Automatic annotation (TrEMBL):
<dbReference type="InterPro" id="IPR011701">
    <property type="entry name" value="MFS"/>
</dbReference>
<feature type="transmembrane region" description="Helical">
    <location>
        <begin position="12"/>
        <end position="33"/>
    </location>
</feature>
<keyword id="KW-1003">Cell membrane</keyword>
<dbReference type="GO" id="GO:0005886">
    <property type="term" value="C:plasma membrane"/>
</dbReference>
<dbReference type="GO" id="GO:0022857">
    <property type="term" value="F:transmembrane transporter activity"/>
</dbReference>
<dbReference type="InterPro" id="IPR020846">
    <property type="entry name" value="MFS_dom"/>
</dbReference>
<dbReference type="InterPro" id="IPR036259">
    <property type="entry name" value="MFS_trans_sf"/>
</dbReference>
<keyword id="KW-0812">Transmembrane</keyword>
<comment type="similarity">
    <text>Belongs to the major facilitator superfamily. EmrB family.</text>
</comment>
<feature type="transmembrane region" description="Helical">
    <location>
        <begin position="465"/>
        <end position="483"/>
    </location>
</feature>
<keyword id="KW-0472">Membrane</keyword>
<keyword id="KW-1133">Transmembrane helix</keyword>
<protein>
    <submittedName>
        <fullName>Drug resistance transporter, EmrB/QacA subfamily</fullName>
    </submittedName>
</protein>
<feature type="transmembrane region" description="Helical">
    <location>
        <begin position="268"/>
        <end position="293"/>
    </location>
</feature>
<feature type="transmembrane region" description="Helical">
    <location>
        <begin position="329"/>
        <end position="349"/>
    </location>
</feature>
<feature type="domain" description="Major facilitator superfamily (MFS) profile">
    <location>
        <begin position="15"/>
        <end position="488"/>
    </location>
</feature>
<dbReference type="InterPro" id="IPR004638">
    <property type="entry name" value="EmrB-like"/>
</dbReference>
């Protein structure tokens, strides 16, 4: 059974501080890389469908490992998990920093992701058991503000580093900080943990890996191999079958990795659907906008980072404000308003030209981020509010997993769409350009024409991807109209929880 916190137990502020610094570094590193993707494409001579694996692969590893963190947190002490997580993250950072070939860089990112996947749920769990309910909101507010500062400063810092140094400096910059945090944790974390006799269901872990991995590989490979390739539809079919098997197995386990009974609560199911759909549009924009401003417009990495800064700062500022508005007005008003703003601004991003002004890009991105800030927290909170307390660990794990995977699939799908549409537009534009040529063009003129055709084709491909993202956001907008203010239910809908499914919080933060 869940052990209530005693009144004389004080929060372990030292542990929380160390964990929060580690989580901040991991989150900052992920935002640093987005601006660097065009530079990596040029340096390593790879295409957009390949380089986007640095983002989608990171999210996929998180999506696979996050369900296992519930087991890890119950099985091992905070100290052991933190040292393993930070050690993996540091190792991946060092490896990525010395990479001169894409497979090495991708391997480093995947190792980073394995550490990051443990770090965030570990911090959230420690915070939940460290503070009583009446103080938990304030603690989460501080936590949110600190983490939101990472995407605020990340793109600008990344742009400055890329403009003055090689992209590998992004990893060299993080390495000494990660090593310092690892050493501090090694010497200062002293929590204890009772021995817990539980085992991880390896079959479930394998099935989830095959399921999510198959889907992502299939979507990501479509850009280079085509949708009619066996590598594409074969792996998607394997992924779907594995996921169905995984879901069936979870319903039969006493201690499932992910308890799918949470979807029997309608507001939680609706919130999951909305956030998944919105993530598909959100993560694609984070990848497509840097490609447009740097590859097509030739805007410097520093200016590209500054372009993203106002929107990220706006999201950070809106985080506590949105929380208060949610308590007063509920989730539907905020979600409908935010998604309407998001849908309209995404549509305007599908109208980019070679002459779109820098100020228009800044304003449009800021308004889009403002709209998204009104949706994420209210929708997720409203869904979790309907769950009985005993389902909170399963609900949060499910949300985190679906967010990672939907973001990865959305990015892969829209970047694939951008690539295939770019090829189609290149053929059409190139044919028209050759038809309009007069006389015998010189080799220099042909080279210049080819470059112009390539840029125009990529621009049209990006616009097509944003147009599809507009329809995706519109789907979320329609779903948000069915949101109702959720009330917590207990033993509702005939869902019975086995004793082994009770959340375990004992000894998570150790002894004072």
């Amino acid at each position: 059974m869940e052990q209530p916190l005693k009144n004389n137990v004080r929060p372990q502020y030292g542990i929380l501080a160390i964990l929060m610094i580690g989580a901040f570094i991991a989150f900052l590193n992920n935002t640093l890389l987005n601006i660097a993707l065009p530079s990596i494409m040029t340096d390593l001579e790879i295409e957009a469908p390949t380089v986007q694996w640095l983002t989608t692969g990171f999210m996929l590893v998180n999506g696979i490992l996050i369900p296992a963190t519930a087991f890890l947190i119950q099985k091992y002490s905070v100290r052991r998990l933190f040292l393993v997580a930070m050690g993996l993250f540091t190792l991946g950072t060092v490896l990525a920093g010395v990479a001169h070939f894409f497979p090495v860089l991708l391997t480093g990112r995947m190792i980073q992701a394995s550490g990051s996947a443990i770090m965030m749920p570990l911090l959230m769990n420690v915070m939940l058991v460290s503070f009583p309910v009446e103080k938990r909101g304030a603690a989460m507010g501080v936590f949110g503000l600190i983490l939101m500062s990472a995407p605020a400063i990340g793109p600008t810092l990344s742009g400055w580093i890329i403009e003055h140094y090689d992209w590998r400096m992004l990893f060299h910059f993080v390495t000494p900080i990660a090593v310092t945090v690892l050493l501090i944790g090694f010497f200062l974390l002293k929590d204890k943990k009772e021995k817990v006799d539980i085992r991880l269901d390896l079959v479930s872990l394998i099935l989830s890996s095959l399921g999510f991995g198959g889907l992502l590989y299939g979507f990501s490979s479509a850009g280079s191999k085509g949708w009619d390739s066996l590598h594409v539809y074969g792996t998607i079919i394997i992924g779907i079958i594995s996921l169905i098997t995984f879901i069936i197995r979870q319903s039969k386990l006493d201690r499932p990795m992910l308890n799918f009974n949470v979807f029997q609560y309608p507001m939680f199911a609706l919130s999951s659907a909305i956030t998944m759909v919105l993530n598909m549009a959100l993560f694609s924009g984070m990848l497509l906008i840097p490609i447009y401003v740097q590859t097509i417009r030739g805007i410097s990495p520093m200016d590209a980072g500054l372009m993203m800064l106002p929107g990220a700062l706006l999201m950070a500022v809106m985080s506590p404000i949105t929380g208060k508005l949610f308590d007063k007005f509920g989730g539907r008003v905020l979600a409908v308003s935010g998604l309407l703003i998001t849908t309209v601004t995404t549509y305007y991003f599908s109208k980019l030209t070679l002459d779109t002004t820098y100020s228009n890009l800044v304003i449009l991105n800021s308004i889009r981020m403002f709209g998204i800030s009104m949706v994420m927290m209210p929708v997720s909170t409203n869904g979790l509010n309907q769950l009985p307390t005993r389902f909170y660990p399963h609900g949060t794990a499910m949300n985190n997993t679906l967010n990672q995977v939907s973001g990865a699939i959305g990015t892969a799908l829209l970047v694939t769409l951008m690539s295939t549409r770019t090829e189609t537009h290149a053929e059409t534009i190139g044919r028209d350009a050759m038809t309009n040529l007069q006389g015998q063009p010189t080799e220099a003129a042909l080279a210049e024409l080819q470059q112009q055709v390539g840029m125009q084709a990529m621009l049209q491909g990006i616009n097509d991807a944003f147009l599809v993202a507009t329809f995706i956001a519109a789907v979320a907008l329609v779903l948000s109209m069915f949101i109702k203010r959720a009330k917590q239910e207990d033993e509702a809908l005939g869902v019975n929880v086995k004793p082994t499914e009770q959340p375990m919080v004992k000894d998570v933060v150790g002894e004072n």
